[in-house]
Amino acid sequence: MTAGKLDGSVAVITGGSRGIGRATALLLAEHGARVTIGDLTLDTANEKSFAELGIRQQVCDVRKLDSLRGLIDGAATDSGRLDILVNNAGIVMVGQVDEIEEADWDRCLDTNLKAAFFGVKYAIPHMRKVGGGAIVNTASNAGILPRAHDPVYSTSKLALTGMTRSLALCHGPDKIRINAVCPGPVSDTGIMNADLATQADLEAAVKRFIQASPIARASGRMITPEEVAQAILYLVSDAAQMVTGTMIAIDGGKSLGVPPTETS
After folding, report:
1. C-beta atoms surrounding 94 within 10 Å
2. How far apart (Å, rounded) are the C-alpha atoms in residues 145 and 113?
3. Residue 259 lies in a domain
4. What is the mean pLDDT of residues 2-28?
5. Is residue 191 in a domain?
6. Is residue 157, in this structure, part of any structural domain at all?
7. DSSP class of 84
8. Does residue 82 form part of some domain?
9. What is the domain count for the chain?
């Protein structure tokens, strides 16, 4: 894909200060998009690289719909259009049913699912005005196969992939393409770093994540945020004009099933 492919496009990315969101913001801007990112807290380490690429930053709590709408409407109004939305903001929620309180459920579902739904709602009128657009939801391999240790998170991501398909069907007539990426395990993200920070044996924890995916195991590393960003770039580009309602798993094969053992 050549540089300049997104020239003239306007993109909004939630959860854009770190990890996958940051990598996506940089990549889309490098390919010519005018990017605005929103995040609950902005990372000052991004100021130089974002400024060089014209990436705008705005504090945004996606659980507060006025804040989310302000991010999307503001970017569209300032630029005169909106072509791309990446619903990337998300949190993890580990715990069994008897350990989860109502507030935990609400925080996870509001961040991972409700915000994506209303992000689409707020983006659609702007995209209709320009004859279409592309939306990508950041789901997870937990959005393909549920996981035993985080049923609330898995519920949010399974619902997100289902919602992606439903909304893609609804808005095909508007030429608005809606897809999802299903990554994991990805290094150097807020979720991964927070998880690793709680581990008594960091090296063993990293090894467990790598071992969970057959290609990650064979490569001796986790997936990178930049690899997920490349998939998002494809989905929002003209190369994917006929791609909608699709889930792209970027998980080293983790969601395929039980991986082969070392001796098989």
Report:
1. 15
2. 17
3. no
4. 91
5. yes
6. yes
7. E
8. yes
9. 2
Structure-token match 């409407």, residue found: 73
pLDDT, residue 263, reads 47
Among 163, 19, 1, 159, smallest CA distance to 88 is for 19
Q: Domain check: are 211 and 176 in the same one?
A: no
Q: Does pTM top 0.85 for this prediction?
A: yes
Domain of 119, in residue numbers = 10-184+224-250
DSSP three-state, residue 241: coil
Residues belonging to the active site: 153
What are the tokens at 185? 């395990």
Location of structure tokens 């240790």: 149
Only one residue has tokens 């010519």, namely 32
The answer to whether 71 touches 93, Cβ cutoff 8 Å, is no
- Outline where the chain has alpha helix (H): 19-30, 47-53, 65-79, 102-109, 115-129, 151-171, 190-197, 202-211, 214-219, 225-236
| CATH number of the domain that residue 66 is part of | 3.40.50.720
For residue 52, give every residue at least 6 positions away whose Cβ sits within 8 Å of its Cβ, in sequence order, or none.
Answer: none
